[in-house]
Amino acid sequence: MNKETILQQLNIRQQCKKYPLPIWQCPQFIFVVMGVVIIISTLFTYSISFKYIDDPLLVALIVLLISWILLIMAYIVTHGVEKLADAARLKMEFLTIMTHQLRAPFANLKWIIDLLVSGKIGTISNDQKEYLDILAENSKRLEELINKIITASKIEAGQFPLDKKPFSLKELVQRVVTSARAYAEASNVKITLNIQENLPKAFGDQARIREVIENFLDNAIKYSKGKGEVEISVFKKDKSLYLEVKDSGVGIPKEDQKYIFQKFFRAKSAFKHQTQGSGLGLFIAKSIILAHKGKIGFKSQEGKGSTFWFTIPIAEQQQ
């Protein structure tokens, strides 16, 4: 083993990059922490034993015994964590490979459906068009799921670059709402905007922030059963811009609220009302906002609706 290889092994940050985990959950980092704990515990044991025990041999035996027990515990803990970390890594690698492999046949399927619907290779009947429209709608949902899994994989792998620039949050919200109007009207949901005048520009990746707003709005419409109303508010709050999406929908059960931003989690109310979803949207939304050094949260009451909110930096504060 050459010097360069040894230095790479000692580089904890570099070693931890292969796991889809924060550095403080990485096996190598935990091993170092446990090592520090063992050293401190050994010194503490020695000082206490030396103070109260006269026999140096007995002091040495006590210190060795305590050190040995701590070493065994450290090995068990780090070995267990390493197995869990490897399982998480393999899972994310599998998801990444699977989604990338699905992209090619999916693109071909989508192209064929679009070609058939266009009528360029022959006239199709109304019944055939109806079935093709169903296929097109389901292929769109599959595409969204594939993209979400790929995004989640990139987030966990730490490969989630942001193109941060000043942009108008007001204009972005208006564009998102315009795109969602038809879906909202079809769902019998009214969208109202409450945007503060003369808002300063936001600072961040506009495309990623759009994903967060679209996720909030899509969920608000989706979970508003019957005639509902969704209110989007945007205003300056302290040194950040604050956005919230408030709905009058089914709400989130209290026992599910602590898990709401976890990957692949869906609340009981989602299954109860048979709404579609992957359980990745809010996980991705939280990751995006935290990457912008903003805050994200919600408040909800089952049967009375939910309010999801986030903050992002103001451009002026970043200059």
Overview of the molecule:
The chain has helices spanning 3-10, 12-16, 27-52, 56-118, 126-156, 169-186, 206-222, 268-272, 281-291, 315-318; strands spanning 165-167, 189-195, 202-204, 228-237, 240-247, 295-301, 305-313. The protein is an alpha+beta fold. The protein has a five-stranded mixed β-sheet with strand order 2-4-5-7-6. Helix 3 runs antiparallel to helix 4, helix 5 crosses helix 9 (281-291) and helix 7 runs antiparallel to helix 9 (281-291). The longest helix has 63 residues, at 56-118. The protein is elongated and about 95 Å long.
Going across the major beta sheet, what is the strand order? Answer: 2-4-5-7-6
Strand content: 5-15%
Q: What is the number of helical segments per DSSP (H or I, 4+ residues)?
A: 10
The gyration radius over C-alpha positions equals 27 Å
N- to C-terminal distance = 47 Å
Keywords:
alpha+beta, two-stranded antiparallel ribbon, disordered N terminus, 319 residues, elongated, 10 helices
Overview in brief:
The protein is α+β, with helices and mostly antiparallel strands. 59% of the residues lie in helices and 15% in strands.
Question: Which secondary structure elements does this structure contain, and how are they paired or packed?
Answer:
Elements lengths: L2 H8 L1 H5 L10 H26 L3 H63 L7 H31 L8 E3 L1 H18 L2 E7 L6 E3 L1 H17 L5 E10 L2 E8 L20 H5 L8 H11 L3 E7 L3 E9 L1 H4 L1
Parallel strand pairs: 2-4
Antiparallel strand pairs: 1-3, 4-5, 5-7, 6-7
